[in-house]
């Protein structure tokens, strides 16, 4: 009787889990996806672990160097690349073959520092801040938000450039006053380095009235999934569509299951489960419809493009995946 009860519980668990397909399902096809080692990639980590598409092995690999990752996508060494939204549009505007499939993360950064009295970008007057590099997503978005708050980014504060690996030590040593950091790095330095969250970029974007109104007020495209022209267009590989559907489903699941998502990801991302749970809660996940994605991305691009270097063209039809 006991053995039958145990067997029944096991069967129920197998069929009640939102991810019923096991990793060892016999796969007839594989799809390779490059992702950053960050909270943004948690849905892809879960897709790799669960392989929810029957007959398909989803294989996720972390990258560190963004130009190298982009090169691997263009060469066909991988099928999909999950990276900064602006990295994709820069390739497109330069005449490259990169095509945006969809966007998965719409807010992931916080302005971090030591002074908890800084609540708005206007409070940064006279301060020293570090941005990752000229033309980076956090460079042009920060400049926009500074201008929207009434500050001249060139005159009213000191901006210097430093990668995250350098800006954190500068913050700790009080050689700068603030730096925008993405998750899970932002949560890590708040918990372990006694720094403070001063500004949530999502809320600052909404407060500036910069983006879409209503439910999308806080949304600005940060990390997107890309393919190349040979995989896009009216003859698009239906597998890309299926992966996008599962990515959307899992992203919704992650939003409501931060603790379990953190437990599934901690070994690969190298952070503790409690830290990752907080970072996941602080990340804005959504894979919208293809039409919504294009609307939001074009709106964002048109809003910030004057802060981008070089000639600013229009994002053409060929940049957006056509299902």
How would you summarize the topology of this molecule?
Layout: H1 2-16, E1 29-36, H2 42-50, E2 56-63, H3 66-75, E3 80-84, H4 85-93, E4 98-107, E5 109-113, E6 128-131, H5 137-148, E7 158-161, H6 164-172, E8 178-182, H7 185-192, E9 196-200, H8 201-207, E10 223-228, H9 238-256, H10 258-269, H11 273-281, E11 284-285, H12 290-304
Parallel strand pairs: 1-2, 1-3, 6-7
Antiparallel strand pairs: 3-10, 4-10, 4-11, 5-8, 5-9
Helix pairs in contact: 2-9, 2-10, 7-11, 10-11
What does this molecule look like?
With 323 residues, the protein is of the alpha/beta class. The relative contact order is 0.18.
Structural class: alpha/beta
Helicity level, as a percent range? 40-55%
Q: Regions with pLDDT < 50 over 5+ consecutive residues? A: 1-25
H/E series: HEHEHEHEEEHEHEHEHEHHHEH
Proportion of residues in β-strands: 15-25%
Strand order of the largest sheet: 2-1-3-10-4-11
Distinct helical segment count:
12
Give the strand tally. Answer: 11
Mass-distribution shape: globular
* Average pLDDT, all residues: 90
Sum this structure up briefly.
By secondary structure, this protein is of the alpha/beta class. Helix content is 41%, strand content 19%. It is built from twelve helices and eleven strands.
